[in-house]
Amino acid sequence: MPSPVQTIRPDPARKAKLDEFGDLNLKIQHMAPDVARHAVLKDEIVSWSKDEDGEHPCVFSGERWTIQFSPRENRRTIFDPRKAFNALKKIVGLEALMALVDVPLGAGVDKFIPEEQHKLFLVKARTGPRTMTVITTLPPPKVA
Q: Rounded to whole angstroms, how far apart are CA atoms 107 and 122?
């Protein structure tokens, strides 16, 4: 059963910001088809650059717009996690290393450890993000 909604009465300055946010939210909703098409086109155009030399910029030109891609970023990848783990453990010690390590909940804890053992090392609390729903209370003002 959902919990009751807590209505908070904001001061006038906050009311104005809430109304401005609602108006902007409506404008953004109206732009949704253009934003979706933009995302599709962007993904396709980005795919054109995948086979180009990563050391240099590449440019694609239309009649009215030119799209330039920078050189690829340098990325580092640990190819032997065991060696990296052991080297760090040797230098910083196990306690300091454990402070650096993130144990995955879904792919690690939930997958391999029975739920009744979770209480030994895991806490669950409502500390995560909230979802926001914008609800019209009055129609937006008419634009002349």
A: 15
Number of structural domains found in the chain? 1
77 part of a folded domain: yes
On whether residue 95 sits in a domain, the answer given is: yes
Domain coverage including residue 35:
22-102
Residue indicated by tokens 């391999």: 112
Could you read off the pLDDT tens digit of each residue along the chain, which spans 144 residues? Answer: 667 777 778 788 898 999 999 999 999 999 999 999 999 999 999 999 999 999 999 999 999 999 999 999 999 999 999 999 999 999 999 999 999 999 999 999 999 999 999 999 999 999 999 999 898 888 766 776
* Residue 10 CA: distances (Å) to CA of 3, 6, 131: 21, 12, 19
Whose tokens are 């910001």? That residue is 17
Tokens of 132: 């926001």
DSSP string, 50-117: TTS-TTS-EEEE-SS-EEEEPPPPP----S-HHHHHHHHHHHH-HHHHHHHPPPPIIIIIIHHS-HHH
Task: Confirm if 13 and 126 have CB atoms less than 8 A apart.
Answer: no
